[in-house]
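Quick one, probably user error.
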């Protein structure tokens, strides 16, 4: 029986990137819709759960994507609600690649590195930064800071994370190079999770830091998010610090993304989201 994937995207046009990964993960056919909201998703879900019964249901699955993470999460909830008990298909939620990218960031940083008891500073509190913070805590980091250029925004993010996941993340302000350097005092790991093409960690902020062991950056568009880091760095040591650039992280992210898509077709009852996608990443060779 053919493996079918229903691709639901909250953006008007379903992502070509997400569809290419699905074919590379061995899926036979994609049924893709854009403009998906929690209010219009139910008939699409019924189309998947009422066409293949019993054991065959595991050959159908749903992927939810889109650049608006909050909207995609609402669609995820509506999809779950549309299932009837065991009449369900497996679902993967990876809006804007946030879960697979963050999982790749943390797995890369942990290559030959014990994070337990370490201080981590994540510069940039978007979806990738937030998920990365969650995974660093899960792995035993003793202190994780998430920054924003506005302390009030950073506080709002950390309070929401406490509410959603019960984790204690510390808010930090990254308004200037000086404030970033101050936050990095005593830090062992720094991760740049800023927007594409913006340097958010200048060399002056990390060069004379005596505790930093690892610096990672998810931005692949020049200039790099970290001054002195190169996009291909894959644990490269410079001035006593190991660097991971966006291509090294991105290559592993692709493996995690394909691995999660493949896992969808193992049973009809999985919901792969920000927590479970990390578990899949942990089983994939770096
Ligand atoms: N390598 C890969 O495989 C891969 C895959 C997916 C995504 N990515 C990259 O991951 C990065 C993070 O993604 P995301 O969706 O989490 O990011 P995002 O939400 O677009 O941005 C992260 C944070 O950066 C801050 N920011 C925005 N403009 C800024 C500026 N001019 N200067 C300093 N800070 C600024 C914002 O925080 P404040 O406004 O609160 O300061 C924002 O919350 C992006 O660069 C994306 O391209 C990489």
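Nope, works fine. Designed sequence:
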């Amino acid at each position: 029986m053919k493996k079918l994937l229903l691709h639901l995207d909250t953006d008007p046009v379903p992502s070509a990137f997400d569809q290419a990964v699905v074919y590379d993960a061995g899926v036979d056919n994609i049924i893709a819709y854009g403009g998906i909201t929690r209010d219009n998703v139910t008939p699409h879900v019924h189309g998947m759960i009422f066409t293949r019964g019993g054991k065959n249901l595991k050959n159908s699955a749903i992927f939810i994507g889109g650049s608006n993470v909050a909207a995609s999460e609402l669609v995820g909830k509506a999809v779950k609600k549309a299932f009837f008990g065991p009449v369900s298909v497996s679902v993967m939620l990876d809006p804007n690649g946030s879960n697979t990218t963050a999982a790749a960031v943390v797995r890369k940083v942990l290559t030959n590195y014990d994070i337990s008891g370490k201080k981590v500073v994540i510069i940039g509190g978007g979806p990738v930064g937030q998920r990365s913070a969650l995974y660093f805590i899960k792995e035993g980091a003793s202190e994780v800071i998430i920054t924003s250029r506005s302390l009030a925004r950073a506080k709002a993010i950390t309070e929401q994370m406490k509410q959603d996941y019960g984790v204690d993340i510390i808010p930090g302000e990254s308004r200037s190079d000086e404030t970033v350097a101050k936050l990095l005092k005593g830090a062992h790991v720094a991760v740049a999770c800023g927007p594409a093409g913006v340097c958010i960690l200048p060399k002056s902020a990390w060069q004379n830091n005596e505790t930093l062991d690892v610096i990672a950056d998810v931005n692949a568009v020049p200039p790099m998010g970290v001054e002195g880091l190169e996009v291909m760095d894959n644990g490269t040591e410079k001035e006593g610090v190991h660097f991971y650039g966006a291509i090294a992280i991105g290559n592993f992210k692709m493996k995690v993304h394909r691995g999660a898509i493949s896992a969808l077709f193992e049973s009809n009852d999985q919901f792969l989201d920000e927590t479970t996608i990390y578990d899949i990443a942990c089983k994939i060779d770096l």
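The CA atoms of residues 181 and 204 lie 8 Å apart.
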